[in-house]
Amino acid sequence: MTLVKICGIQEVKHAQIAAQGGADAIGFVFAPSKRQISVNKAAEIAKQLPSTVNKIGVFVNASKQELETTAHAVGLDFVQLHGDETPEFCEQLDLPYIKSFRIQSEEDLQALNQYDSATYFLLDSASGPYRGGNGTQFDWSILDNNDFNHEKFILAGGLNPDNVQQAIKQTQPMMVDVSSGVETDGQKDETKINQFINLVKERSTCHTHNQI
Which of 7, 77, 90, 177 is catalytic? Predict the structure, then answer.
C-alpha cells in the first residue's frame, strides 16, 4: 500500500486530522518557508500524535548538530534533507534520513546512486522559489525508463486530490508527500486532507509496500 505524508503541519488540529484520517507520516518544516515551524511548537504537536505516525523534519543545509538536536527535541523519526548535503555529510549522521532531489531531467536521477545510506529518497520538482513545497509538478515520464528502488521512493511536487491516483499509477512510489495540495488559502484544509488520504489508500489497495 502506498503511504501518505502530510507535510507543512503547523497546528495540532491539522496533525490530528491527518493522523485520524490515516496518514502514515507528517512533516514539520524547519527550513525557511511560509510553513516554517519552531522546534518547541513541533515538539508540542508531536506529543499529541500516536507513535504509529512518523514525524519527519524538513531541513535545508542544517548542521549535523542542528539536525540531531532538533530530532531529539521533537522526537523525529527521520530528517528530510533538501539542501546541498553531500554524501559524506549524510553518512556521518546518526539519524535515519530522507534525501530530496530536484528533478528536471533524467540526468538528475544519477545523483541517487551517491546516497546509498539514505533510508528513502524524495523526488520533487525543481520549479519554484523554495527547495521544496512549491506546489509544482515535474514531468513524471522522466522516471519511466529509469531503474531505481521503488521501495525507497517518495514522490512529491504538485500532488493534490485531482492527480494523486494518476501519480501513483504512473510512478509507483512507496509514499506520496503533499503540502500545498491539501490547503485552501495557504492553510491546511480538513476536507482536502481526508480526501487526499482516501484517494491514495483506495488507489493503492492492490499494491503492497514495506511500512516506513
Answer: 7
